[in-house]
Amino acid sequence: MTLIPVEFHGIHTTGPEQFTCVILRWAEQNRVLPIWLSPLAAAELDIREGGYTPRRPGTVDLLLDLLNRTTGGVTAVNIISHFEGVFIASIVLADGEQLDARPSDALLVARALELPIHVEEDVLTHTSFFVSDDIMEESFGLRFDSVPQAGGEELSASGDAKADADFEEMMRSLGMSESDFFRGNGPHGPLDRDDDADTGGSRGDGEKE
């Protein structure tokens, strides 16, 4: 398994439905991976990002306290698989054990402990995508410097221009475009959104209320 570090770029809302997601960025390839969150999970992560500390321990605080007492704590947080639209994260413990987790819970742990977030390379390759600087700035208030190649040309979305062209052709054949992501819609309606799921252009937890 090859794990790639990703940058955490906060919680954002998009589309007329105001869906919430975390933006992770694969800086080396200038690609983004959105992890869609339920409103409740997004709100908890957002307030903690803003510096809020609950007067009584929340679920994540109890989890971390238990892990510190029984295993020596957490050493890493990874997103390790994506199967049939569902992301699975892994919380790695000091004793070498790994706990499967929802992406929302894993992200809470990572941010609470200020741990870097890593994503398995195959997951990134298949679920992340290029978004132009202008759209990132307009939609999320984020702007990243384009990654230049040695000859001064900008790196293509994936680093493979033919693969990017094939991907764009596939998207067109499905009746989708880059803007569908920001409207929160696919060719058959809302883009795989589940109000109690963590997703990345697809379901994350696979649970419903």
UniProtKB/TrEMBL annotation:
Residues 3-131 form the BFN domain. GO terms for molecular function: nuclease activity. Signal peptide: none annotated. InterPro entries: BFN_sf, Bi_nuclease_dom. Pfam families: BFN_dom (PF02577). SUPFAM superfamilies: Hypothetical protein TM0160. This is BFN domain-containing protein. Residues 178-209 are annotated as: Disordered.
